C-alpha cells in the first residue's frame, strides 16, 4: 500500500505541474505571513482531482497485473 501511495503522490505532482502550467500563467502557490507555502484553493482542488484519477488508474493497473500473475 505504501508503494501505491508514493506512486500516486509522485505522479500527481508531475501531472499537476503540467496541467497547471498548461491552463494558467499565475502561480499555484500562496505564501502566508508565517512564511509557509501552500496551494491556493483552486490549485488544491485541481491537485485533488488529479490525485483521485491517478489513484484509480494505478489501482486498476495493479489489479490487472496481479490477475495476470
Q: What does it look like?
A:
The protein is mainly alpha-helical and 69 residues long. The protein is 72% helix and 9% strand. The chain contains two helices and two strands; from the N terminus they run αββα. The protein has helices at residues 2-23, 41-68; strands spanning 29-31, 37-39. It has a two-stranded antiparallel ribbon. A hairpin with a 5-residue loop joins strand 1 and strand 2 (37-39). The longest helix has 28 residues, at 41-68. It is elongated. The two termini are 18 Å apart. The model has no long low-confidence stretch (mean pLDDT 86).
Q: What is the 3D shape?
A: elongated
DSSP helical segment count: 2
C-alpha end-to-end distance = 18 Å
Number-wise, the strands total 2
For the sheet with most strands, the description reads: 2 strands, antiparallel
Low-confidence stretches: none
Protein structure class: mainly alpha
Mean pLDDT: 86
Please list the strands of the largest sheet in the order they lie side by side: 1-2
Rg: 15 Å
Describe the structure concisely:
It is built from two helices and two strands, in the order H-E-E-H. By secondary structure, it is mostly helical.
